[in-house]
Amino acid sequence: MRFLTAAAALGALFLTLSGAAAAEGDNKGVKQKFSLTLDGAKKAAAAAEAEAVKNGWNVVIAIVDDGGNLLYLQRLDGTQASSSETATRKARTSALFKRPTKALEDAVAGGRVALLSLPNVTPLEGGVPLVYKGEIIGAIGVSGATSQQDAQVAKIGADTLTQ
Question: Which residue from 18, 110, 119, 148 has the least number of CB within 10 angstroms?
Answer without folding.
Answer: 119
